[in-house]
Amino acid sequence: MVLNPDRNKFLENLNNAVDCFEDYSQNLYNNIIAISHNDADGISSLQIIQNLLHKMVLNYDYFIYNRSVSWTNYLSGILPKSHSNKTALIFTDIGSNLAELIPIIKNRQEHFYILDHHEVDYEVSLDDLPENLFFVNPTIFGFDGLDHVSGATLAYMFAKKINLSIIKQGWLAAIGIAGDSLKPMEKLQSFNREVYQEICDEELVIDKEGLILFGNMHDSIKNSLKYSILPFLNGFGGEEDQKIKSFLNNIGINPNKKLEDLDQNEIQNILANTKIKVGHFAILPKKQGLLKFTFEHAILLNILSFKNISAAISIIQQKSITRYAKEIYYEYISALSQNLKLLANQLPRHETKNTIFIDAGSSKIPPSNWSDTASFTSVNDLLIPSKMLFFGGLEKKTQMVKLSIRCSREYLKNDHKGVNQVINNIKQKLGGTGGGHKLAGGIRLSIPSFKKLMEKIEDFV
Ligand SMILES: [Mn+2]
Predict the structure, then answer these.
(1) For labelling alongside 454, which of 274, 358, 410, 461 has CA 20 to 30 A away?
(2) What is the mean pLDDT of the chain?
(3) What is the Cα–Cα distance from 214 to 227, expressed in whole angstroms?
């Protein structure tokens, strides 16, 4: 179903939440609890809200939710024993699991503000929501939660309506956009585009044009070819230094020259000899090194969110990267480029009309990397976009089969079921645990269930 975005209705919905929050925070609330998602977009959103609450001189606590437990369990550890409408909760980049949340919210007196851009798992009628819930989600008005509006874009729009000086924090929105959209900046649409334009005009972010080698924009051209994860360059990605150096030397380019220092001739030369494209990327002028580049900054936050959440929250406020974070970053992108190289060239696969299964179970790729490898395979179009990808295999530790499932937007256009529907289908017929949204998700299955799935996989998609 493709809806035409209804901008006015959405803005009316946003303004209503803004007005209520402004009024109540002056004469009712004495404490705010902010809850956000554990990724770059979530952490950027949280920073924006924290800045707003600080400016409003409101007391607040914050929490990061990684979805490893149910909302019921998670919130029971956060919500005070005694109910009070003097406390308000703000959820950013998370909280659209309304089927689970509404029963909890109904039984509480606190006010809940949910500012999210993930798709809702529930038929929402805004008029039937509990009175203490202010639900702002542009996807229910037909906006696309990835291309049109990130979580941080939405948090920025909300906060700026309350306090105009939040504009100065707009660079945070650029990190959220980069982390969620995984696209060069000229591809941004709708609110993402408008907010990006505004923060560029304010010179909080500088828009530049150049070779797009996301994952390694801050480094030498040699390393950029080797570690670029968007695009992943088959033939350079994860290859030996010597191979890349001799390619660059042959076309008259110093392999150690910084990507950002290449001149027009050198850029033309690379364009003529590779499939690399030119595009727009965003620079944070107040930051240094890797952190100056929004895409790399966002990837770093995504990695740290899993490994060490307090390091993620601290680094977004820093000007330059710590040695610890830099090491983790390189470990991550070198493993990812190796994994993409393996996947593109070597792993066993099984194709049907609409699906492709790639077996990672007996490969060198550890199960903890399967999900990211599948995501970057899919965004890089490394596989046929007209098929749904099932990537994974036997996880030795649990003796369960773990699958990361991905599909492209093009795949969905042909009236195919989305990933979340396929997962629900599998769960109903074969059991297992998991979930996701229309383009990405994952499931864990027993070995016999997995065998049944493989026999009749076309029936499930
Ligand atoms: Mn997000």
Answers:
(1) 410
(2) 94
(3) 9
Q: Are residues 123 and 214 in the same domain?
A: no
Position 79 in a domain: yes
Q: What pTM value is reported for the model? A: 0.91
Q: Is the pLDDT of residue 3 over 80?
A: no
> What spacing in Å lies between the alpha carbon of 292 and ligand 1's midpoint?
21
Q: Is 2 among the domain residues?
A: no
Strand order in the sheet with 87-92: 60-65, 31-37, 87-92, 111-115, 133-136
C-alpha 167/C-alpha 382 separation (Å) is: 38
pLDDT for the residue 275: 92
pLDDT > 70 fraction of the chain, expressed in percent and rounded = 99
Each residue's pLDDT tens digit, 351-398: 999 999 999 998 889 888 898 899 899 888 888 888 999 999 999 888
> 219-253: per-residue pLDDT in tens?
999 999 999 999 999 999 999 999 999 999 999 99
303 vs 17: CA distance, rounded Å: 32
Per-residue pLDDT tens digits for 22-76: 999 999 999 999 999 999 999 999 999 999 999 999 999 999 998 778 899 999 9
Comparing CA positions, the residue from 75, 74, 95 lying closest to residue 87 is: 75
The answer to whether 293 touches 178, Cβ cutoff 8 Å, is: no
Same domain? For 77 and 61 the reply is yes
* Torsion 422-35-293-181 (CA) sign: positive
CA of 72 to the centre of ligand 1 (A): 22
* Ligand 1: centre distance to CA 406 (Å): 17
CB 146 within 8 A of CB 123: no
Residue 259 in tokens: 């990507």
Among 155, 179, 201, identify where a domain stops. 201
Ligand 1 mean position, distance from CA 106 (Å): 25
DSSP codes of every residue in 155-200: HHHHHHHH-GGGGGGHHHHHHHHHHHH-S-GGG--HHHHHHHHHHH
State in Å: Cα 42 to ligand 1 middle.
6
Q: Please state the rounded mean pLDDT for residues 133-141.
A: 96
Q: Beta strands 349-351 and 355-359: pairing type?
A: antiparallel
